[in-house]
Amino acid sequence: MPEHRFYPISLHCKELKQSNSDYFLFHFLVKYPTVGDDIIDYSKCTFVEITQNSEGKNIPIKIHPEGSILSSSERIAIITGKIKILGSYKWSYGGKDMISRNKLEFKNKVYKYDYDVLWGLSGILYLSEEIKNELETVGITNGYFFPLKENMIRSFEYE
Question: What is the number of domains present in the chain?
Answer without folding.
Answer: 1
